[in-house]
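Entry 12.
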Amino acid sequence: MIRRRFDDVRAPALVLSWLVAACAGDDAGSGGTSAAASATASATASATASTDTSTDASTSDPSTSGSSASATATATTSSSASTTGAESTGASAGSTTIDPTSTSGTTTGGATGPDPDDPALECGSPYCFNVINRCAFPLWIHAENNDKVVLEPDLTLLQPAEWQQYPVPAEWPAGRINAYYADPMSSPESHDKVEVTLTQGIMNYNITYVDYVSLPSEMRAVGPECQPSDDFDPAIGCYVPRDELLSSCPDDLLAGERCLSANLHCADGANKDTPYCHALDAEIDACVADHPDTCGVAGLLGDRTPQVYGCAGYFDSQPPNCMPASVDCHQEGNKWCAALNRGMLGDPDSAETRQYYTKAPYNTYAKWVHEVCPGIYAFAYDDYPANANQSGFRACKAPRLDVVFCPVG
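Predicted 3D structure (tokens):
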């Protein structure tokens, strides 16, 4: 496990010892479920989809892991002892095999970070994640999946221009890599995240701004079978300076250092009666009237604008693959959720993205996300239809994934 500065200057040694207490998840509000399985290049991407658009839960908050760092290290190695990285040094599984403050093998990159081709980023043994901090402030890193497998070293503090390599089990489904820009013990909401599932050697990964935007980021899988081509770019990212990103947050959605989604904004009781949180009511009524066999269920359930923003109620499209539509079967809820958020009620199956957000009313937060960070998830069913490529999912066979927070500062 490696922590290095980009400019060959060793950071002072820092030992983090956390006693983690159980508490509730960090965010509330997003009720939608992703339909990502239909959008990814691999059938295995459906494992990632289980968390891609849900509100942050236990995988986002280190205080919910309910175990010490040593316990989580044991959990990590139990998933796949052969891929913990211990083999490369002969150390026991789960132990820290490289001094984080060592200057041995320090990358030759500059202050903006190493190039993806820099050999310093190569995995000690498959598989690994490299987390790079290009923000102007420190970040605490916490990576955990739905099975409570925490990557070690947990809660690493990365100063600006530092990076950390994490050995990863061969199977690490439905995981999140969280970057906290304030002490996660005292400010558990002060973070942003990216999502990844590693299974059968395939990296399935995406950036999600379904709940809010706080840190721009970039993800890139690296390996011989994950090369750029006319049809595929392994990199997905938001390439806007963080200050510029937050200053452009629309419609009074900025809350501290987070630009809240329309869904999260309207989940606040103080906002529920505002015009913003009823902006799509008339369009919902039109959907109910024009499509009674499917969208009509939304009328029976009394769904209004907040349910569209969050792809909740009828618009959650649950359970999957049921029919016909009823109060217990929300068939095509995903389609109508996407159409109403984009102002595309008249052409819900269109993949012509240039038409999206051109006819008001629509979800102004989602429009903004796609303007400043094209192709990144902005609401729960932003992956409908799959050929619109609005969700930012990537999937390819690779031993390594690089994650950069604040890729352009």
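Annotation: Residues 69-79 form the longest helix (11 residues). The CA atoms of residues 307 and 331 lie 15 Å apart.
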